[in-house]
Amino acid sequence: MAQKRIFEIRTPRGTVYQTRTANGKVIAHLEWEPGFGPSVSQGFQRAQEVVDSECLRYMDHLTPRQSGYMIKSATLGTVIGSGEIEYLAPYARRQYYENSGKTDPTGNRGKLWFERMKAAHLEDIRKGAANFVANR
Q1: For the range 73-77, what are the long-range contacts, defined as Cβ-Cβ under 8 Å and sequence gap of 24 or more?
Q2: How large is the average pLDDT for residues 72-100?
Q3: C-alpha distances in angstroms, 57 versus 114, 116, 124?
Q4: Is the pLDDT at 115 greater than 60, yes or no?
Q5: Which of 42, 50, 59 is nearest to 80 (CA)?
């Protein structure tokens, strides 16, 4: 089972730049804001959680369904924030690559549901995740 990824942004130590010009010497101190690394790291972690949960949500109506166990197995098998969606149902792989979709009256459910979800909702997911990184 996947484990939750921990994002960590490390900031370098401060730097001093010094140069001489015709009018004298120029010294510049470059220092990072003390909370920058942890703040940005937390934003990326929350963004990954949004991506994982949105993928599960959008895939729900595309995943083949007979009893609903396979959809539930993705919810139970996925650690939100890990960046991996894992299905516990033993037949999920075969359904993903071989399902014909003929039993679904709406025509939405069938094979390659993640790829089809990505094609339809990638920009929505990207915008939602960007909000968490930008609003640190």
Answers
A1: 77/1
A2: 94
A3: 11, 13, 12
A4: yes
A5: 50
Report the number of distinct structural domains present in the chain.
1
Would you say residue 119 lies in a domain?
yes
Pair of tokens at residue 131: 């909000």
Q: Are 74 and 38 in contact (CB under 8 A)?
A: no
What are the pLDDT digits (tens) for 45-81? 999 999 999 999 999 999 999 899 999 999 999 999 9
| Percent of the residues in the chain that have a pLDDT greater than 70, as a whole number | 94
pLDDT of residue 135: 63
Pair of tokens at residue 14:
């401060």
Please check whether residue 69 lies inside any domain of the structure. Answer: yes
In-domain check, residue 92: yes
DSSP string, 69-125: HHHHHHHHH--TTSS-----STTHHHHHHH---TT-SSS---S-HHHHHHHHHHHHH
Question: In 3D, which of 121, 48, 118, 97 has the Cα closest to residue 87?
Answer: 97
Cα distance between residue 118 and residue 133, in whole Å: 20
Q: How many residues does the chain have?
A: 136
Could you tell me if residue 22 is inside a domain?
A: yes
